[in-house]
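JOB MANIFEST
job_type = single_chain_structure
chain_count = 1
residues = 281
[input]
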Amino acid sequence: MIPISGTTRIFPVIGWPVEQVKAPAIYNAYFSQKGIDAVCVPMRVAPAEYAAFVRSMMSASNVGGICVSIPHKPASVGVADVSTRIARVAGAANAIYRNGDGAVVADLIDGEGFVRALDRTALPFGFLYEQSSALIVGCGGVGCAIAAALAERGIAALCLVDVNHDLVEQLAERLRAHYPALVLSLHHYEVGEFDLLVNGTPLGMMPGDAMPFSVAAAKPSAIVADCGMKTEMTELLKAAEVRGLRIQKGKEMLFEQAPLYMERFGWPNTTADEFRALGVL
């Protein structure tokens, strides 16, 4: 690892809690391998202090950007000078950085990481967004990000489900405003109707957990994706694999969004395979 000095660029990862974040292991391994004078540092910041802390961090010229973890993604949209469309649609941001004019930008890249992983999962034929439908169970930060990214790619239909109905209704309103051709359904679903089944909840991380949905009735061609990072093969993915369905692990979204972070933070032209090869996850 390169010694930290006055020239080192600092990239905080802010969460509450922050013990679970994977970004420091991934990005510090990458910086070390490439000889980049930068360090990714986890920082535990309470929600009440978050906005002021971000503004303070971004006032330091050697802070190159911020990775945002739970529960701060929704609040991040309002702390920046400007926000991207995808962040506004999802109502959340997980990357904060300066643009070419020096303005602080709130961006959302984990949804794009998810769809890039989906493109890989669906090889050799690819995922036909314009002809496909997706079920998203869990419309918190990651679920909103995935919904917005799928809509941006032109998916034909989405079904949004969460125990917090207000959250679903608010997300649906934003999606309708930006993607009027998108067919939306809320709250109620039949698993067999969908080409993509996404778990955006913590359910299934531990043996004995309740399932977010049953894969028993899923169509044979369906892809089942779980966003959980703590457990690689969740109970949901195990059940889907037993049925012979294609699966997508949560860490794939992490690998695919890593180059997006690097691009925003000043190192374009990296690839997800470079981060997979690090072997830190």
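[summary]
The first strand starts at residue 9 and ends at 15.
Residues 208 and 235 are 8 Å apart (CA to CA).
exit_status = 0
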